[in-house]
Amino acid sequence: MTLDWTIPKGTVVLVTGGTGFIGAHCIQVLLENGFRVKAAVRSKTKGEQLVKSFNKYESALTFGIIEDVSDYYSLVRLAEGCSGILHLASPYTYAVKDFAKELLDPALKGTQTVMEAAAAHKSIKRVVITSSFAAVFDATKGLQPNVVLTEEDFSPLTYEDGVNASDPAVAYRASKIVGERAAWDFISQRKPSFDISVLCPPMVYGPLATTELLSSLDNLNFSNLTIWKMATSGSATPVPPTKGPVYVDVRDLAFAHFRALVVPEAANQRFMVSAGDYSNQQICDDLRDNLSTSRAKHVPIGTPYQNTEPEHFTTDSSKAIEILGVTFRPIKDSVLDLVNQLYSYIE
């Protein structure tokens, strides 16, 4: 029932990271459900491209320019008149040299600034934080066969661990838990008039909400670029090992964001949003079985229908299913829709 929604239909929701892979899908779901959206973007060009992508919604989507999401005064101005915030903007790159400056500080200060900006406006009732499976998983424990990970699990990494990390992957994982903990600390210490909801997705796959924002395939988000490169690498190419063996479709994740924003029971709750296990061999099998012949011939054959991956942890998203009403697409739908979309883009 929309009458019970925490955020009233027709009101304005601020979305940080709105031009990103997940953010654009979140904007689409919000618009489809009768909300107005204000996207925080880094440039006028990006903002205009975003608005053009959703032009059928006319004036329901606007944008404001903010080069740095940790810019408090700019973010406060953008948040004025909003009823909720989806905070997705956070660095995701391993091509870094200064872990603190390029990963940890943007994640930490970005979240802190979003929380402060929300506190500056009594109209804001909820902030949804996009965290990560990286904030759940303790990589020092290995693959943990027979272990079921849920939203009750937290990475033990600290800011100092990230700064002193031996490689960017550890620093990135630290940035996610540090950013998330900043939100929980704000709630417990400041007790603001708004509440939060935190989502922890694993690898995110699926088609783009729009190709309008895609300048070239080289600029695809990391997870989808990995799929595209594998799907076009050639039949004799070995199937690469699966590095992140749990996934969620971007469309299901976007729906989870929407529901986390409006469902009263999501207040100050954390959710694992994972569809379950997959392997790269399974993806290749699905693509070869379902793509057209001209496209399927470029997909690695590997060892068809055999799972040669080591045993690993599983995930339990029953809380998200029960409270948010999320359902999960199979990995086949995610990768097929993506690969066919990208072939159409280049042809």
UniProtKB/TrEMBL annotation:
List the protein's name. Answer: NAD-dependent epimerase/dehydratase domain-containing protein
What is the species of this protein? Ogataea polymorpha
Domain NAD-dependent epimerase/dehydratase, chain residue ranges per copy: 13-266
Similarity comment text for this entry: Belongs to the NAD(P)-dependent epimerase/dehydratase family. Dihydroflavonol-4-reductase subfamily.
Pfam entry (one): Epimerase
Give the UniProt keywords, A-Z. Oxidoreductase
| GO molecular function terms noted in the UniProt entry | oxidoreductase activity, acting on the CH-OH group of donors, NAD or NADP as acceptor
**SUPFAM superfamilies assigned to the protein according to its UniProt record, in alphabetical order:** NAD(P)-binding Rossmann-fold domains (SSF51735)
InterPro entries per the UniProt record, alphabetical: Epimerase_deHydtase, NAD(P)-bd_dom_sf, NAD(P)_dehydrat-like
- The answer to keyword Transmembrane applying to this record is no
Q: Does the keyword Cell division apply?
A: no
